[in-house]
Amino acid sequence: MVVFAGQGDARRSMALLWRSAESGGARTGPGPKPGLDIDTIVAAGVAVADEQGMAALSMRAVGAQLGRTAMALYTYVPSKSELVDLMHDRVLAELPTEYGTGAGWRPAITAWAEDVWAFHLRHPWVLQVSQARPVLGPSEYGQLETVVRILRETGLDPLHVRRVIAVLFQFVRGMARVAAEHREAAPETGVSDEEWWAERSALLTEFAPDFAERFPALAALESSATLTAVTGAEAGGAASHMEREAKEAFRVGLEVILDGIEAAVRADSDGTVHASVRTP
Prior knowledge:
Layout: H1 10-17, H2 38-52, H3 59-65, H4 80-92, H5 105-122, H6 138-151, H7 158-189, H8 193-207, H9 211-214, H10 216-236, H11 238-270, H12 275-278
């Protein structure tokens, strides 16, 4: 399930995100003051998505979380589209925006990536909000500002920094998605990772007895990792093992990306950076 941000009225969405006077954050008029406001509704939306997933999110579900009808919410948030934008920007505000670079840019980026990884596992529904059209809220810009400030320490030119940021964001999101899906697979399907792999491994041996001859490099790689995989699965359970494997792949992949950035920094300082980096 992919959700595209910014599907509501553009002016109303931006007014709500940036809390302008147009957003109409609190209803006014005679009678008792209402017990609702935008922040309360957004917090309820986040609670629904965290507990039940994005597929369960609706104005009716959020209203039920607050003991109200869906109609009671529309005075504050005009539709689910605007609500998703607000929820996305709301949870992004949890992330730190300051990372010291006294020890260099690399430890700072590593700390940032670890924080973003953990953030996505707390709020896996965020991974379903497409990055093709950003929300354009203050917290989203705050995260970009944070990473730009860190990578500015590399001395790379702005276009190179922009492309590196795109790689980092998508790498962290992609690896977090794998870990989140490992967590969700067993509850969603009713079949544990251990059961799933045991059944299919036996069938693979049955239907592809010549697997090692057809895929020798893969077979050699898998056989060298089998003992570690089995030991890990027995020690902590297949699901937790798979999540640990995803985290280790994240750690190794991040190191490779950071090594690449350092190589680019050295090339840039030597004047040997490729021309393709400097041109759109």
